[in-house]
Amino acid sequence: MACGVRIPATPSTHDRPQRRIPLHTVGKKLPPEVATAHKLLIKNENKSSATTGAFIALFTFCANRVPPTTKKLKDIMTRFHTLIAAATLLASTQAHAATITVLPTDVGAPGFNTWYLANYRGASNGFSSTTKAAITTANPRSGNGSVQMSLTDLSGKADYTYTWGFDNSRTLGSLTSLNYDWFRSGTSTASGIMPALRLLYDADGNAATGSDQGYLIFEQVYNPNAASVVSDQWVTSNLMTANLWQRQFSPGFTVESFGVSMNDWISGANQPANADRLNGNTAILGIEFGIGSGWDGSFNGFVDNVSFGFNQNVTTFNFEASAASAVPEPASIALLSLGLIGFAAARRRKVK
User: Fold this and answer.
1) 153 and 167: one domain?
2) Strand, helix or coil at 44?
3) Within a domain: 324
4) What ranges make up the beta strands (E) of the chain?
5) Residues 296 and 342 both lie in one domain
6) Could you tell me if 151 and 299 are in contact, meaning their C-beta atoms sit under 8 angstroms apart?
7) Which of 33, 150, 221, 296 is 20 to 30 A removed from 132 (C-alpha atoms)?
8) Could you tell me if 43 and 129 lie in one domain?
9) CATH number where 152 lies
10) Residues 10 and 120 in one domain
11) How many other β-carbons are positioned within 10 Å of the β-carbon of residue 10?
């Protein structure tokens, strides 16, 4: 690395020229306590460039701010060793969660690992409904935007889709979290309706047998009833504890059993006789949310913070109308705080 910490050529002499030693070699030349802190930096080097950068900055800053004797460097780094270890633990807890900001320019053509508009039916392609499905600022949830979804009659429909195809690590049995935020405007005349969320499945997890694919669909009206579909407020729905119904792609059949829980679909228990038989090995190929398909009346609503997790690795999509200033992650905030504390401690020590 280009950066390094300064240590004296002769520790007991302050007035001689100091030489600058690269960070990757400094651990061999400093006292044991400092070397331990240095090893911690190297250990975390490949985990997170942001975290490692903060560690290195903290290490170098402290080494250069105190008078250049190994004794005082030893003292200051001994104090910081426990704090750095705590920050490392905090940083590691962030490794399994990611929030991805989705801007209007990120919604494109159909493909894997990208959001795209699907099944659109509106005035622009020959239907009577004035249908809208776009990221707007009309009702922001977490930031400055959300996905606005509206239609004016039963001909309208629109979906936002995100697929990844067959992935052995993404099965119904490895699904550990699934939730999203939705909003129903009080101006909607279609009763008991809100944006639905769907999981795209392949029942046997075998790509060669595509006739067993379909959707597991969440609608609040079945959890438990229409009275739970509230208006003019944001609602967070957790699908891991909800009922979902099934729509088969082939032959295009709706399994009209609306009380089957997510646990039932995962375990293979209590499933209707005419349903695709699902279990923990069922492949999950993607996720989708949308409105329409014969809704009688008008609807206006919003969706944001669509989140799923497999094997505790959680991905959340936050839909924003425009890019905002980056917000530091909790681990980075903690490291910055430690640096400020260290600076204050060093200043007090120097004054004494």
Assistant:
1) yes
2) coil
3) no
4) 4-7, 19-22, 97-102, 115-121, 132-136, 146-151, 157-163, 175-184, 196-202, 213-218, 234-238, 245-248, 253-255, 283-292, 299-310, 313-319
5) no
6) yes
7) 221
8) no
9) 2.60.120
10) no
11) 8
Location of structure tokens 């070397």: 35
Taking Cα atoms as reference points, which of 23, 34, 25 lies closest to residue 66? 34
Quickly tell me which residue has 């690795």 as its tokens: 313
Over the stretch 318-331, which tens digit does the pLDDT of each residue have?
A: 999 999 754 555 55
Structure tokens at 160: 């936002």
Q: Are residues 23 and 136 in the same domain?
A: no
By residue range, what is the domain housing residue 11? 4-94+329-351
Highest-scoring range by mean pLDDT, 17-31, 52-66, 119-133, 335-349: 119-133
On whether both 186 and 64 belong to a single domain, the answer is no
Can you give the pTM of this predicted structure? 0.70
Q: Are residues 342 and 221 part of one domain?
A: no
* 3-33 residue pLDDT tens: 433 333 333 333 444 444 444 444 445 555 4
Q: Which two tokens stand for residue 264?
A: 């039932």
